[in-house]
């Protein structure tokens, strides 16, 4: 199961003229996504209501996780990714050039059923939340990375491979640790 949470905050109610949903959190309009020449999403339009469970169900490889990654712009970290269309969060286009992506990712956190780390090292995946907060002190980062990995019972497994790509040894607990560090620093 893939889940997505948005941090609670007072917002104006946004009704959808398309679907009639009275309190819409996300509006997706004509969203297409390409990885290089390969099209992963084609002309997706949907509204996602606030404070309700929404499930994306389909066969493996149909684009469910790719779509979810769009909601907090995780695909920005993939060099060959190109996105067309719009995603509005509370009426604001999250792909607008003026959007603070770090703030967006604090509002829209995700934990996937299968690990979905950033294309970075194990160390950088765990330190990512702190770096979003502007923490760059190596001693602080080292301490938090070790504490987080110990808390996830991963330290002994990965301590000698912190610079390895996280895709090679991805575990859901690593992704959860990233999310916890962002929340702890907010």
- CATH architectural designation of the largest domain: 3-Layer(aba) Sandwich
Rough outline: globular
| Largest sheet properties | 4 strands, antiparallel
Continuous helix count: 6
Helix proportion range: 25-40%
Measured by DSSP, the beta-strand proportion falls in 15-25%
Counted beta strands: 6
How many discrete domains? 2
**Which homologous superfamily in CATH is the superfamily of the largest domain?**
P-loop containing nucleotide triphosphate hydrolases
What Rg do the Cα atoms give? 17 Å
Task: Kindly report the spatial arrangement of strands forming the biggest sheet.
Answer: 3-2-4-5
- The first-to-last residue Cα distance is 26 Å
Describe the protein's architecture and organization.
With 186 residues, the chain is of the alpha+beta class. It folds into two domains: 109 residues, Rossmann fold, CATH 3.40.50; 64 residues. Helix content is 31%, strand content 23%. The protein contains six helices and six strands, in the order βββαββαβαααα. The protein has a four-stranded antiparallel sheet, covered by helices on one side. It has a two-stranded antiparallel sheet with strand order 1-6. 20% of the residues are buried. The N terminus is likely disordered.
Tell me the layout of helices and strands:
Layout lengths: L2 E4 L17 E12 L2 E12 L14 H7 L10 E9 L2 E2 L7 H7 E4 L10 H11 L5 H14 L3 H4 L13 H14 L1
Antiparallel strand pairs: 1-6, 2-3, 2-4, 4-5
């Amino acid at each position: 199961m893939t889940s997505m949470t948005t941090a609670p905050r007072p917002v104006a109610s946004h009704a959808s003229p398309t679907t009639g949903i009275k309190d819409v959190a996300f509006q997706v309009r004509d969203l297409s996504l390409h990885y290089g020449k390969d099209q992963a999403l084609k002309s997706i339009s949907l509204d996602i209501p606030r404070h309700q469970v929404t499930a994306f169900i389909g066969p493996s490889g149909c684009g469910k996780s790719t779509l979810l990654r769009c909601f907090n712009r995780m695909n920005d970290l993939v060099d060959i990714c190109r996105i067309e269309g719009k995603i509005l969060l509370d009426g604001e286009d999250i792909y607008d050039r003026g959007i603070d992506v770090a703030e967006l990712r604090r509002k829209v956190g995700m934990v996937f059923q299968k690990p979905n780390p950033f294309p970075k090292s194990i160390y950088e995946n765990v330190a990512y939340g702190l770096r979003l907060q502007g923490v760059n002190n190596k001693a602080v980062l080292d301490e938090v990375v070790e504490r987080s990995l110990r808390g996830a019972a991963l330290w002994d497994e990965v301590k000698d491979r912190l610079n390895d790509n996280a895709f090679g040894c991805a575990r859901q607990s690593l992704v959860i640790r990233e999310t916890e560090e962002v929340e702890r620093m907010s």
